Automatic annotation (TrEMBL):
Protein name stated in the entry: Phosphatidylethanolamine-binding protein
Native source species: Latilactobacillus curvatus (Lactobacillus curvatus)
Highest taxon, organism lineage: Bacteria
Pfam families in alphabetical order: PBP
Classification via InterPro entries: PEBP (IPR008914), PEBP-like_sf (IPR036610), YbhB_YbcL/LppC-like (IPR005247)
Organism lineage string: Bacteria, Bacillati, Bacillota, Bacilli, Lactobacillales
Length: 170
């Protein structure tokens, strides 16, 4: 299985998918989500789940990764740019903007793509997609640990895509 994205050029996500973009929610969080395509998935795949995260955030959060997007019950192999905001055909979990580490946004405001805003240097972002033999019994606003538990025993394959996003200078 492989993941590709038309939103990556020269190893970097395009500006519009994060703090250098133009689409933000009322709290100032970037909301224009990354596009991606899943290739060579197992033929018996029923649905996909994905998590988009930043391990370079450890330095900023003092020990925690930053979860930018979780999604489940995706039935297609193509996710268009800004799908998170445009009537997605999948369910979305909360991102780290929901946590006490940040402004503790509501579930409704954070159960979507919360874009890249690296404050200290360019960060590497990871998209991990899972091919599953079922759909997951989750509700919108789920937590990553709930998705992980629901996937146990149902993962047929997985793939990772990584790229960087340039530092946001205030």
């Amino acid at each position: 299985m492989q993941i590709i994205s038309s939103g990556i050029h020269h190893g970097y996500f395009d500006d519009l998918y994060g703090s250098h973009g133009t689409q933000f929610n009322a709290e100032g969080v970037p909301t224009y989500s990354i596009p991606f395509d899943i290739q060579d998935a197992p033929s018996d795949t029923v649905s996909y789940a994905a998590v988009f995260y930043d391990l370079d955030a450890y330095e900023v959060t003092q020990g925690f990764p930053w979860i930018h997007w979780t999604l489940a019950n995706l039935k297609t192999t193509t996710v268009a740019a800004n799908a998170s905001q445009q009537a997605p055909d999948f369910i979305q979990g909360v991102n780290t903007w929901h946590s006490p580490q940040t402004d503790h946004l509501s579930t409704e405001a954070s159960a979507c793509y919360g874009g890249m805003t690296p404050p200290n240097r360019d960060h590497t972002y990871t998209l991990k997609v899972f091919a599953l033999d079922t759909t997951l019994d989750l509700q919108p606003g789920f937590y990553l640990n709930q998705m992980t538990a629901a996937m146990r025993g149902h993962i047929l394959d997985s793939a990772v895509l990584e790229a960087q996003y340039r530092q946001f200078k205030h």
